[in-house]
Amino acid sequence: MKFIFILYLAACTSVFAQSNMRAITLDEYAKVKALPLKSVEKHTYIREKGYVFDRPEGADGLFEFNLNDGIERKIYLYKISEGAAMNGIGTLAVFSGQGKQIKLYIPNQLAPKEVWNQYMSDLKVGNTMANGFAVCVAYMLSQLKTESAPDSTSTEEKDPNDFCFPAETFVNLADGSEKPISTILEGEMLSGIFQGKVTRIETHVGSFQLTRLLIKPHGQAWVSAKVRDGLIALEATATHPLLTLTGRKKISQLRVGDWVFVRDAVSGRFVTAEISVIQHAVRNVTHVYNLRTESGTYETESIIALDKN
Question: Which segments of the protein form a coiled coil according to its record (predicted)?
Answer without folding.
Answer: none
